[in-house]
Amino acid sequence: MTMTTEQLQKICLLSDSELYEDAVEFVKSHRETKVSETQLSGLQNAIGVGDYNEIFRYINNRLERSTTSTQLKNFYGKLRDYLQLLPSKVEDARLVVTPEDMTRVQSRQVREEINLYAYLLATEYIQHLVAEYNYQRNL
């Protein structure tokens, strides 16, 4: 699948405005949570895989660990909640064209395309999140 210039511009605009602002607010709301550099690196590694669902596997793995503190479970739970909203952001931004009467094959293709763009937005968001945590840590 080839991304159009318009789609790329929309992703950049969403990243630089909405996703960045949301990441800053997320970090502010979890200021008391001790998120280690290792945990932030783990998030970056999860987005490096190139699969939207893999990010959720990583987050769910963190949530299921018995050694994860209550604060970190809250952090990962809220992060998962936010990332689950990204497919609707993809649709709201009209990054994917959805035909009126879709066949099953078209419906699957549209879902895959939405997941791809949601993954790209998740990547942008997590990069902003990690950068903001690192910035706040150095204040």
What does it look like?
The chain has 139 residues and is an all-alpha fold. It has one domain (5-137). Helices cover 76% and strands 0% of the residues. It contains six helices and no strands. It has helices at 5-29, 37-48, 52-64, 70-84, 86-92, 104-137. Helix 1 crosses helix 6 and helix 5 (86-92) crosses helix 6. The longest helix is centred in the C-terminal third of the chain and has 34 residues, at 104-137. The N and C termini lie far apart (42 Å). The model has no long low-confidence stretch (mean pLDDT 93).
Write the SSE topology.
Layout: H1 5-29, H2 37-48, H3 52-64, H4 70-84, H5 86-92, H6 104-137
Helix pairs in contact: 1-6, 2-3, 2-6, 3-4, 5-6
Relative strand content? under 5%
Count of separate DSSP helical elements:
6
* Strand element count: 0
**What helical percentage do the residues reach?**
over 70%
Q: Overall mean pLDDT score?
A: 93
Instruction: Let me know the largest β-sheet.
Output: none
pLDDT < 50 stretches: none
Give the radius of gyration.
Answer: 16 Å
Quote the distance from N terminus to C terminus: 42 Å
What is the H-and-E element order?
HHHHHH
Short description:
Helices cover 76% and strands 0% of the residues. The protein has 139 residues and is mainly alpha-helical.
Salient structural properties:
6 helices; about 140 residues; globular; about 75% helix; mainly alpha
